[in-house]
Specification:
alpha/beta; Rossmann fold; 2 domains; about 15% strand; globular; transferase; glycosyltransferase activity; Glyco_trans_4-like_N
Amino acid sequence: MMKAVLAFPGDLDTPTGGYAYDRAVLRALPGHGVDVKPLALPRAFPFPAASDLAETARLLGETPADALLFVDGLALGAMPVDLLNASGRRIVALIHHPLAREAGLSPEQQAALEASEREALAICAGVIATSAATGRDLVANYGVPPDRLSIAEPGVAPAPRAVAQGEPPHILAIGSVIPRKNYAGLVAALAGVADLGWTATFIGSLDFAPQTVAEVRSLIAAHGLGHRIRLAGAVPAEALEAAYAGCDLFVHAALYEGYGMVLADALRRGLPMIASTGGAAGDTVPDGSAVKVPPGDTPALTAALRALLSDRSARLRLADAAAEAGARLPGWDDTARTIAQALKQASRSPTP
């Protein structure tokens, strides 16, 4: 078996799609000939201090000399090239989405992250993107050669189909409360259909962007929706499964997604869905399996909510279409097979 180290910032149990991807890959890769070990880097990425970079250099230097470094882009894109070269290891990047695509950054931060990530990717023996849309972005805007790029879409675990026939409908949105997920726009859209019957739960970490959390709470209160919208924060797996089972309409208003794993999870469960098309999300959700709206278009989101909340038969038709699309999604074994092939190819290829 080839040796690899999957390096990521902070806690592997962090409740986001990117970390869920990393956890699943760590479990599945040994079955495809890759002896992979996890390596936790300082949690400050993508904005590390000098002390964080020094600790990162030490940790990377202590990995087995014959191991390939498989580095999550949340950290890799903010690492100086000199630090990466000093590791003396062959490097493969895992890119969920480019760092500069995160919402809420200043123009200066965006420019710095884009330049840093482009330089880091240039020295990688291979690059693995989690969606075709992200792959196209990396080739077009980050100089990644197509022959060094592989696409390994997230797998989806088997899941029971949700009933999704409740009245009044219960709306579910999942994702950390950060600017990119556009909860402010979702609250505004829900305020526009306050005359209809519905309740809603937002599930996702409240720890990453306190100012955004405060803004969303303030908007909920200002629209008088505190009794209808619940910010549940991050929840354990059992509670998340119960939330899917109790959902009648799944809504995802994100401005940008590198893939959108919760969209795939909702499809697999046959949930009627409204989804924005930001980034890769428009590809993740096939046409006809959801009502799609442009990212950041609150009037379009409001109109979609009104149409589906008012029409139970339309929701049921969408549920059937979602279930059909979900049945075609790959499993994690498929994802691991693709990654293993890419890692083995990178281990044999000339370094850039």
